[in-house]
Amino acid sequence: MKPLRPWILGMGCTPVGEHWSQSLYDLATEAIHAALADAGVDRVDALVVGNMLSGVLNRQENLAAALADRAGLSGIEAIKVEAACASGGAALQVGAAMVASHTCERVLVLGVEKMTDADPAAVIQGLAYAADFESETIIGASFSGLSALLTSLYLQATGATPEDLSVFVRQAHQHAIGNPWAMYRHAVTAEEWGASPMISDPLRLLDCTPLCDGAAAVVLGRPGDLHRHEHRPVEIASIAGAVETIALAQRPQPLRLKAVEQSVARALERAEVSLPMLDLTEFHDAFPVMTALSLEAAGFMPAGTGWRYFDAAADAHLRIPIQTMGGLKARGHPVGATGVYQVIEATLQLQGRAGENQVLGAKTAMTQCSGGLGGNVFTSILRQATP
Amino acid sequence: MIDPAVQSRLQPTLYRLEGVRCLRCHHADVSRRSTCARCGNAAVATVRFSGKGRLLAVTLMARPPSEHDRLGAFHLALVELDDGPRLLAKLTDVTSRPAAIGDAVEVVIRRLFEPGPEELICYGYKVRGTTPVTS
User: What does the DSSP 8-state code read for residue B76?
Assistant: First the structure.
């Protein structure tokens, strides 16, 4: 049976940043109303919310009901989906499946995270709950700490330096300049990177994604639904997830992101797309080593060479634009919202609406978000649809 | 702070470095898990590990999580034990020169958390360098 591939009918988001005057509810409502207005509807059948920390940081569970009510959508069905930093991708998976299975006609998928109300140490603690509690969180590990250890293993294995890896940071910041909702719309030089304080050696402040707030929403529906012909329609060709052992110390091969390998392979297969058909990719660049390892695991670069992606002298299986709107690093990483921001940005690229960051002729895009250090990965393939 | 029931369940791991070794592929972990992290096999033997190993990676965490920030920054280490498993632990007994990558390390028992309202002290493993410091 031919799979039903949902279309993106509308989308909207808040800027990513420190929104002191806006609550979790305010941010969510703003993004929901923007997406509904963009789609030209005032109601959907269901709301699926991607969020990680509303219970820990905002003391609000039953989140989907709370947000649907605040947005004036009382009566619809609503659920929250949690997969740590991949919560947005997981919510898209659930929302797309609801449309594809004919359970609902139109579904609004919202990603939202409000991190800056809480003390930063409490946010770092909350994020650490995405690590393995009994062997990592209890020890005192933070995600920058775990990423620093992973980075150290990578540098030892490849001979790369922290400065080599920082190329991903500089490139992301360069791309964020053209993204109207990015948190950091400014370039970063190698000198500025080198002068930024050490957070968890070898990781500097400018290697790490910021603690920030944001909400992003898309309305999903059936092919042809609501099509108003002013923008090229975009379909979700596939979404696929994969998990692996969360605990870094328990992974047989810590430098091989197996869940990235598996979710990419599944997403390509379900979309009936091969790797060379991709025109751009948004990876989960929470830390530079994650970009390098994801490039390797996704099959763009041979193992151990991801850090040389921008080095034309290095062999690559596929070299296409990545992090085209600034990525997690410079757009910002409001945890549960990230997967939805990625899909909005990739959709703009496929519609030719990405402004100065436009990837010319982009027809097919891949987006990927990762919970923990590759513990739970969701990969989406988006494609221009035929009206 | 850690709940007493959780602390009680984790005592074999935290106090005695007990874990599992897969009866099929022999992969070993310092963990209460009941399946193998490498092959998924459900037949695993409970093992007590030696506590001797070497340092694979170490980082000085300047921004610890709130439940671990009372004493400020600390070193987080990834260790490979001589009998197979890898272990994540705080580096302790750090003097002027912290243990470096490749150094021999050993597991020691230290206080992990300040006591909570139940006044139970949670002890557990940390690691320290055993390579003599030469100036």
Answer: E
Among A138, A198, A245, select the one facing B37 at the smallest CB separation: A245
Structure tokens at A344: 């909005």
Residue type, A381: I
User: Please, are residues A55 and A98 in contact by the beta-carbon 8 Å criterion?
Assistant: no
B29-72: pLDDT as tens digits: 999 999 999 999 999 999 999 999 999 999 999 999 999 988 89
> Which residues on A lie below 8 Å from B61 (Cβ)?
140-142, 144-145, 148, 199-200
Considering the candidates A85, A104, A212, A369, report the single residue annotated as catalytic. Answer: A85
Give me the residue from A125, A140, A251 closest to B90, CB to CB: A140
Q: Give the torsion through C-alpha atoms of A36, A42, A48, A54, to 10 deg.
A: 80
Decide if A169 contacts A188 (C-beta within 8 A): yes
Mutate to test the interface with A, among B27, B61, B75 (most CBs of A within 10 A): B61
Mutate to test the interface with A, among B9, B21, B35, B63 (most CBs of A within 10 A): B63
Both structure tokens of A212: 């920030």
Q: What are the pLDDT digits (tens) for B65-79? A: 999 988 899 999 999
What is the distance between the alpha carbons of residues B34 and A275, in angstroms, rounded to a whole number? Answer: 37
Q: Which of A121, A200, A248 lies nearest to residue B59, judging by beta carbons?
A: A200
Q: Tell me what the pLDDT averaged over chain A comes to.
A: 97
Tokens 């909005």 correspond to what residue? A344
A152, B29: Cβ pair inside 8 Å? Answer: no
pLDDT at B135: 46
ipTM over 0.90: yes
On whether any CB of chain B is under 8 Å from the CB of A359, the answer is no
Query: Cα(A225)–Cα(A232) distance, rounded to whole angstroms?
Result: 13
pLDDT in tens, B3-17: 889 999 999 999 999
Contact A250 B37 (CB under 8 A): yes
Q: Which residues of B touch A157 (CB under 8 A)?
A: none
Burial letters A169-182, b for 16+ CB under 10 A, else e: bbbbbbbbebbebb
Q: Please tell me the distance from the alpha carbon of residue B44 to that of residue B22, in angstroms, as a whole number.
A: 4
CA–CA dist A165, A167 (Å, integer): 5
Hunting for tokens 């519609």 — which residue is that?
A351
Contact B10, B33 (CB under 8 A): no
Q: Which two tokens stand for residue A251?
A: 């992974």
Q: Do B59 and A119 touch (CB under 8 A)?
A: no
Q: Please state the pTM of the whole predicted model.
A: 0.97
CB of B126 within 8 A of CB of B89? yes
Q: Would you give the DSSP letter of residue A357?
A: G
Q: Is the pLDDT of residue A172 over 60?
A: yes
